Amino acid sequence: MLRNHAFAKSFQSSMIISCRSFSSHSNDEYQFLQRSVIPTYHFQKSLRRLPIPKLEDSARRYLNAAKAVVSDAEFKESEDAVKELLHKDGPELQKELRAYDKKNKHTSYISEPWFDMYLKSRLPCPINFNPFMMFAPEKDASYNDQLSRATNFAISCARFKKSLDAEVLAPEVFHMNPKKSDTDFFRTVCRLLPSNLSWFGAVAFKAFPLDMSQYSSLFGGNRIPARNKDILHNCKNPKHFMVMSKGNIYSVDLFDEQGNILPPDDVHASLAEILKSSTAPDTNSCIGSLTTLERDSWADIRNELITNPKNHESFRSIDDALFVLCLDDLKTEDHGRLVQSLLCGDDGHNRWFDKCFQLIVDGNGQATVNFEHSWGDGVAVLRLMEETLRDTSTHHFVKPNQTVTGDPKVQKLEFEINDSLKNKIKKAQEDHIDRCKDLQFATVEYTNMTPCNSTCLL
């Protein structure tokens, strides 16, 4: 299942105009992944807000969920506590929640608790929060080549980003009956409706637009460790992405000064240079391992590091980067070993778990996304994966064993680390490895999943 699971949706296929050939790298066919006739955020203003359930309904749902995971004695205690809540503090708390929701009509009442749940937690990001999702391999095995696949995915991510920023990425819409609603007529009607009414027009077709507010955090984000509560940083117009190879960290340009995506040959040349020249440093100098730490400890060490001007500049480049591309040496067909690498990153030396997302491409060309969870959930990430997988499978911007002819635009990020900091990196690696030892992995490969038999499992 791991290597054969493809992320693909059909309901958006006819909602866009795809770009299929490139006569010039500066034209729209190369610069944009798609051209939706409905603007990306057209439905946002008219989306319905999440309703607050009745207190009694919340209590009932809580008890139903608890019953499956607690003993009979513990469930009796829960029942008594819920009854007390319903008759004492509950009604007043419900009243306060409704007042809070009424004051904050621009967002959902669960938004702030969501962020606090993640950002106030002092647990390490890997294992506890960061999930991963794997791409299906290329059907043409020759394209499962680390250099060409990493290059193609980096370019597709840039095309997705530019389409999103220009609001020509198709809106996220769930069609109950695509044959009736995923049509030119539907798109024309919705496009012509004012944005504050467009949701109602879509629902009339039994098509349900989904919230896309998290999409603006897909790129250029970093979770910065801070005492008690972390900070979400977001750079709106980064031109570079971050590459990690053998624990080294590089800044690689993906856009030019005018905001155009660089030619494929240049991106290809940058990654080729990194793969060719990177050598493994002293593992105790690999600061990526520090992102595996408990958050207060990481905050203290980061603050110590950025007192050095050179380190401060390198951290700024990391924080602002579009995303991080991790080029791994690992080549394995062992699913358990692969999962361990993608979830834990071994000792963390070639990971940066704080970035909005890590695009991991190993020595076999297996591509995977591991993402920091506080900024959003899997809906936005899955959409990114679906679109870029389809794009890289359709458009091979570079080919395997292609001659490197472009102009590399690479800067290696340097850090000044004293012996005390090296010891802290070593300790972080040891602690992370110890935590990962408690994990056990098992995989099942099933290739006959269909909408019909998946429904039968529910």
Give a concise summary:
This protein has 458 residues and is an alpha+beta fold. The radius of gyration is 24 Å and the shape is globular.
Radius of gyration: 24 Å
CATH architecture of the domain at 125-165 and 217-437: 2-Layer Sandwich
- What is the arithmetic mean of pLDDT? 92
Structural class: alpha+beta
Characterize the largest beta sheet: strand count, sense, and whether it forms a barrel: 7 strands, mixed
Q: What is the CATH class designation of the domain at 125-165 and 217-437?
A: Alpha Beta
What's the arrangement of strands in the largest beta sheet?
A: 1-10-9-8-6-7-11
Shape: globular
CATH superfamily of the domain at 125-165 and 217-437, by name, is Choline/Carnitine o-acyltransferase, domain 2
How far apart, in Å, are the first and last alpha carbons? 19 Å
For the secondary structure, the number of strands is: 11
The CATH topology of the domain at 125-165 and 217-437 turns out to be: Chloramphenicol Acetyltransferase
Counted by DSSP, the helix tally is 16
List the secondary-structure elements in sequence, H or E. HHHHHEHEHHHEEEEEHHHEHEEHEHH
Percent in helix: 40-55%
Into which percentage range does the β-strand content fall?
5-15%
The poorly predicted ranges are 1-21
What tags apply to this protein structure?
7-stranded mixed sheet; 40% helix; alpha+beta; disordered N terminus; two-stranded antiparallel ribbon; 458 residues; 16 helices; Chloramphenicol Acetyltransferase
